[in-house]
Every structure is written in structure tokens, then in C-alpha cells.
Amino acid sequence: MKGGTTALVVGATSDIGRAVARRLARDGCALQLAGRHGGDLAAEVQDMRPRTAGAVTAHRCDVLDADGGASLLDELDPLPDVAVCVVGLTGDQTAAQRDGAVAERIMRTNYVGPALLMAALAERFEQRGRGVLVGVSSVAGERGRASNYVYGSAKAGFTALLSGLRNRLAGSGVHVVTVKPGYVRTRMTDGMDLPPRLTAEPDEVARAVVRAIRRRRDVVYVRRIWRVIMLAVRALPEWLFKRTRL
After folding, report:
1. CA distance 125 to 67
2. Can you give the pLDDT at residue 189?
3. 180: closest CA among 104, 86, 68?
4. Structural contact between residues 105 and 33, judged by C-beta atoms closer than 8 angstroms
5. N or C: which end of the chain has fewer CB within 10 A?
6. What are phi and psi of 245, to 5 degrees?
7. What is the bridge-based pairing of β-strands 174-180 and 183-184?
8. Distance (Å, rounded) from C-alpha 10 to C-alpha 14?
9. Does residue 159 contact residue 140 with C-beta atoms inside 8 Å?
10. Residues with Cβ < 8 Å from 139, sequence gap 6 or more?
11. Which of 12, 186, 178 is nearest to 86 (CA)?
12. Cβ-based neighbours of 6, under 8 Å, separated by 6 or more
């Protein structure tokens, strides 16, 4: 990316969001950092300002709001050239099975809110005739598995939404990128026993995001091995898949 680019990062106080913002700052981008917690955002702004030649601003955005946080767009000046949504919540599958409110929060955080926000951004980018939208989804959305199907179903919806936007906006000057990280070592996965070969660091995800923006990629697996793994998972016939404990 070139200097003068303005990038919006939604979920900027998360481990991945912070890493993405730092990567964009290295390219000299002006940063619009969005998230729920004002104090955390203020700290991020102070941290990012010395890292980029561009301006750095903080903006409240909660994807659990009725509009998915899309009211944020009315205060952005300028409208960003690039928007990256890294919002997510793994949640507790067992709790979600037993409590509809827990399940709803997982679904709204991973799909409903981000979908509404990305759709609103898509409308404005399309009207302008250019821009890049990046959504961080998950390999969990490729097939429903007993261990995380509430989270996976929400990410499946988000992946489909991004695919539909990409198809609709082809030729409009607006490009849509879907990033599928697999396991990532963050505060959200702290305490989980993650396989090293399949687990990325936040900066690894950030590098993949920035590379995808530069190269106009469509769908990106942060670690290539996940593409092979999920190909095999999707290929299992249902009678055999039901016997697995994935």
C-alpha cells in the first residue's frame, strides 16, 4: 500500500487487530481504530501515532448494536480506502447449547453485527467506486463440527456474506477479501492446548491480511496446511463424518 491510504480497523484492541494496525502503520497508512472500549482505544492511538506518518483516530464501534455499529461510518472523515473487520468471539460451545442468550451473543458477534457493518461499508465503497474490504472469518465455518458448531455456523454465515459481496462488487472497483486464520495464539485462546503446526501468531495473520490487500487476493488461509485439512474435512461423506469427534 502507498502512503496516503486511510485504513479502518474494527476490533482494533484485539490481539489480531493491534497486529494488523501495526502492519498498516509500517506502510504509512492513516489509521481509524474502532472498538468498544474507549480507554483501550485511547491507549492504542497513543501507541500507533509514532509508528505511522498518517493520522491516527479512535472511534467507538460495537457490532452488538442494532445496526452492527454501522453508525460509525457517519463520523469517519475521510471514508477509509481499506476496512478490516477482525471482530470475533469463540465462546463456549457447551454453554451455548444450554443457554440461548449465550448462543445469540456468539452469533451476533461473529455474524450478524459484522455482516451489517460490512454491508454498510460495501454500499459506501460502491458509491465511491473503489476500496478494499477485509473480513477475518474462520476455517470453523467450512463444516459444522460438534466441538464448535455455534461459532462455526456464525463464521459460515460471515464467509458466505463476504463471498456474496465479492461476487456482487466484482468490476465495481471494490475488492473483498476473506481471511481464514485457523488457530491463533491470542488472549481469546489463552489456556487452550493448540497444535503448534496449525497455530499462527497475531502478526502472522496481520502479514497475511496486508499481503492479501496488496495482491488483491480473494480467499486466504493464513497457514496453507489449513486449506488441505479443510478440503479433507469437507470431502468426508456424512455417514463417516458423524463418527468423527472433531
Report:
1. 18
2. 77
3. 86
4. no
5. C
6. -130, 70
7. unpaired
8. 9
9. no
10. 180, 181, 182, 221, 226, 229, 230
11. 12
12. 29, 30, 31, 32, 54, 78, 79, 80, 81, 82
79 DSSP 8-state letter:
P
pLDDT value, residue 2: 66
Residue 83 parent element (H or E): strand 82-85
Alpha-carbon 184 to chain mean position: 13
DSSP string, 125-189: HHHHT-EEEEEE--GGGGS--TTTHHHHHHHHHHHHHHHHHHHHHTTTTEEEEEEE--EE-SGGG
Residue matched to cell numbers 489449513: 226
Active site residues: 151
Contact 220, 234 (CB under 8 A): no
Q: Are 167 and 124 in contact (CB under 8 A)?
A: no
What is the mean pLDDT for each group of 10 consecutive residues in the chain (246 residues)? 88 97 96 92 95 95 97 97 97 97 98 98 98 98 96 98 98 98 86 86 97 97 96 96 90
**CA-CA distance, 219 to 178, in Å (whole number)?**
5
- SS3 category, 33: strand
Report the DSSP beta bridge partners of residue 35.
60
Instruction: Name the DSSP class of 70.
Output: G
Other C-beta atoms lying within 10 Å of the C-beta of residue 75: 11
Contact between 30 and 56 (Cβ < 8 Å): yes
